[in-house]
Every structure is written in C-alpha cells, then in structure tokens.
C-alpha cells in the first residue's frame, strides 16, 4: 500500500496517509486565501486511518453550508498541514504543498472560482465551480 507523509515547514508536525488520494482540488474561497496566505489552497482527501506525529494547534471554522472544519497547524512554524470535517471521521484533507511532491497530479476541480484571482490560470480541462457544488 502506498503511504505519503505531509509535514510542516519545520518538521515538527506531520501526517502519514495510506492508499490512493480520493480526490484533490483547489479552493479559492476567501477563508482559504486568508488561512494559507496564498491566493488559493490545494487539498487532497485520504481515507482513514492516518497517523499524526507532533503537536498541532487547531482552529475550527464554519463553512458556508454550516459544516465545521478543524484545521491543524504547527504551533512552531504556523504551517497548516491538514484538516478534518466534524462528523466525517472517515477521511482527512491534506495540504498538497506539505507533501513536497512536485509530481503530484493536477487538481481535479476548482471551487469558489468566483473568488479566483484573475491572473491565476487553471490547468486545461479542470472543471471550475463558482461556489462549492456540494
């Protein structure tokens, strides 16, 4: 079985996921822009179980549809490494950049595209949704 480890900048916090990525995408919502300090977030989902090493500081944010997302970031360097959705314990969302794998596959979709900065170009064929289509 394939395993991948994502880690924060300083290496204090990491998560190891197993198996294939269930799906990956880009989020351009203003909350993700603020959270990452970038103009979008790139996320991949993996099925549980997974292993966490190190200490995490958590921040819970309520999404547009009322879901509660628990973001886990390193209290030393501040990198957001992964997040979970309250009540959805069967998967975890990992920040693709924390995998440090430039060969990771291109995103499968782009959400909150209405907030995408005009100069950000998506790969050809990536479906874009004005909001989250859930």
From TrEMBL:
Coiled-coil regions listed: none
Keyword Zinc on entry: yes
Pfam families with a match to the protein in the record: GFA
Residue span, CENP-V/GFA domain: 4-113
Keywords, comma-separated and alphabetical: Lyase, Metal-binding, Zinc
Alphabetized InterPro entries for the sequence: CENP-V/GFA, Mss4-like_sf
GO molecular function, one term: metal ion binding
Similarity-based family: Belongs to the Gfa family.
Descriptive protein name: CENP-V/GFA domain-containing protein
Species for this entry: Pelagibacterium halotolerans (strain DSM 22347 / JCM 15775 / CGMCC 1.7692 / B2)
């Amino acid at each position: 079985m394939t395993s991948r480890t994502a880690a924060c900048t300083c290496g204090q916090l990491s998560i190891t996921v197993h198996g294939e990525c269930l799906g990956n995408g880009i989020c351009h919502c203003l909350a993700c822009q603020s959270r990452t300090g970038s103009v979008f977030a790139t996320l991949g989902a993996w099925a549980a179980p997974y292993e966490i090493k190190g200490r995490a500081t958590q921040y819970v944010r309520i999404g547009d549809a009322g879901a509660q997302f628990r973001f886990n970031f390193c209290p030393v360097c501040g990198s957001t490494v992964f997040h979970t959705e309250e009540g959805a314990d069967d998967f975890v969302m990992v920040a693709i950049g924390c995998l440090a794998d430039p060969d990771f596959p291109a995103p499968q979709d782009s959400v909150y595209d209405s907030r995408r900065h005009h100069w950000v170009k998506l790969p050809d064929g990536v479906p874009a949704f004005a909001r989250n289509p859930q």
